[in-house]
Structure of Permease:
Amino acid sequence: MDFMKLLKSIEELLYELITWFVFYPLTFWRIVTRPISMLAYAQKELTEKDHEQFDDAVSPPILLLLTLVLLHVLEGAVAGRAPSVFPTLLQDDRNLLVFRALAFSLFPLLFATMKLRNSGARMTRTTLKPAFYSQSYATVPFVMAISLGMQLSSHAQALPGGSMWGLMVALAGTIWYLAVETVWLSKGTQMSRLRAVLATLGIFLVAVFVLLVAAALVALVGYQMDQQAPTP
């Protein structure tokens, strides 16, 4: 009986993994072309039964994690055997992915917190979850644009105009993200459009600042560990 349950679990896992090849690009396209609708969709799906949630899309946290994995694989393929600038702590793929997942999750977390505070709802894990899920959707194209932009810029010598194209991709993704957040905040709260713009910029800058500080601290700890490690 236990063996049959194991086979059933493996069957369901394989089917779930295979369906990502279909629903990942579909979900990503829907987010880019209909962002506000998808943010509302993410919150609505959490009210459905567990087995019916996100039946026609990839769930927001999984989509964000898959995007980071794909970008990490692409980065490794493009970089090849070039020496890494990261400390040993972050040269491990698992550590780097965990750090990036936590770092980029700051953006949906801060925007979700702002939305909840302005709606007057009590801050709990249950009330925060719908806003965080919807914000995870909005973060995916932004993360994609920033990462691709940085990769293009880092290969400017091999790719003519790489720096310019990288800057344009990153800038386009950032503008898209800020515009979506502004509309989302103004529609979901009692904020005026101007106040929503200012709030969006403020939250975004705070998230970037915290991200940079966290990256600097992790890098500092990593380099100190490298210096203290015994040389072979």
Remarks:
- The chain has nine helices and no strands.
